[in-house]
């Protein structure tokens, strides 16, 4: 209401409101630039309102002893809680994502038992090596088709020869294992099957 009575411009009102919002002291004279005539001075308000707030010389900080006496520096003791069964929670989440429902615990136990029974047998290393050699041959053929065969040929052939060497070692171990099995089962005749 005072601003309207003092006929301040919109710019001057906004400036004064910004000062109030920031908590700054109001200016005693308003020297704001406006497109009209020079701004009139802000009317003198009562001395209690016009006076800037004087802060005390001492800051309102608590002394260190007071802070240390309180609970600010004490740590909360660690209290371990009951551990969760992570496997159980994984299964539950899988069921929720797969079916959209939370399956009963009995079903979870049954599926776990089934997965243990259906364990995949350990793959044969000899077969793995054969597959790896085949993959390298296919890769080399693709590179030759793209015109990059010379770049990769020596690398791929070296890897293939290493795989063949490993296959020979695996084959030799298998032969020795078979020889031992045969000599245990047939102590007298085992040597006649495998000379050397």
UniProtKB/TrEMBL annotation:
PANTHER family: UPF0193 PROTEIN EVG1. This is EVG1 protein.
């Amino acid at each position: 209401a005072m601003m309207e009575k003092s006929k301040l411009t919109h710019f001057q009102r906004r400036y004064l409101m910004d000062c109030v919002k920031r908590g700054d002291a109001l200016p005693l004279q308003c020297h704001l630039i406006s497109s009209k005539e020079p701004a009139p001075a802000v009317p003198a308000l009562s001395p209690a309102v016009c006076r800037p707030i004087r802060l005390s010389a001492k800051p309102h900080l608590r002394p260190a002893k007071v802070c240390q006496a309180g609970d600010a520096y004490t740590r909360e003791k660690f209290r371990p809680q009951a551990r969760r069964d992570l496997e159980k929670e994984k299964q539950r989440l899988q069921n929720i994502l797969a079916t959209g429902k939370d399956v009963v615990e009995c079903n979870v136990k049954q599926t776990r038992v089934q997965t243990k029974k259906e364990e995949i047998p350990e793959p044969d290393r000899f077969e793995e090596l054969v597959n790896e050699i085949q993959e390298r041959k296919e890769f080399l053929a693709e590179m030759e088709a793209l015109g990059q065969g010379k770049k990769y040929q020596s690398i791929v052939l070296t890897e293939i020869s290493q795989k063949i060497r490993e296959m020979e070692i695996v084959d030799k171990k298998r032969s020795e294992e078979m020889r031992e099995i045969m000599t245990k089962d047939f102590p007298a005749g085992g040597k006649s099957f495998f000379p050397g």
